[in-house]
């Protein structure tokens, strides 16, 4: 099955159309609050490490892979594609990292995956500092 995984930032517009949408804004620590990570993106190892060390993110990624595999097991999966959207506030840290991991895991399972980072290259969105758990 052909799968498209799109990362995006809610602060840059509406979420893309998708069968599955992961909203990472409120339940997972935002690397944006760390000044040393703010200007970086999911393409940087330090950001990926910070995101993947956040409690709960790995089980969520595993559950999302399981959902995608369930769609792929459907009787008409060969005739349809699956769209997964992964969003956070700016689309540069959490969403980008989660999308990269999802794409990699689904490719390992034999799926044709297109990875799109809608907002990864956009400038950092300045916003009020938020306390993180």
Automatic annotation (TrEMBL):
Q: Which InterPro entries match?
A: RapZ-like, RapZ_C
Where is coiled-coil annotated?
Answer: none
| Source organism (scientific name) | Streptomyces evansiae
Give the protein name, as stated in the record: RNase adapter RapZ
Ranges where the RapZ C-terminal domain occurs: 1-120
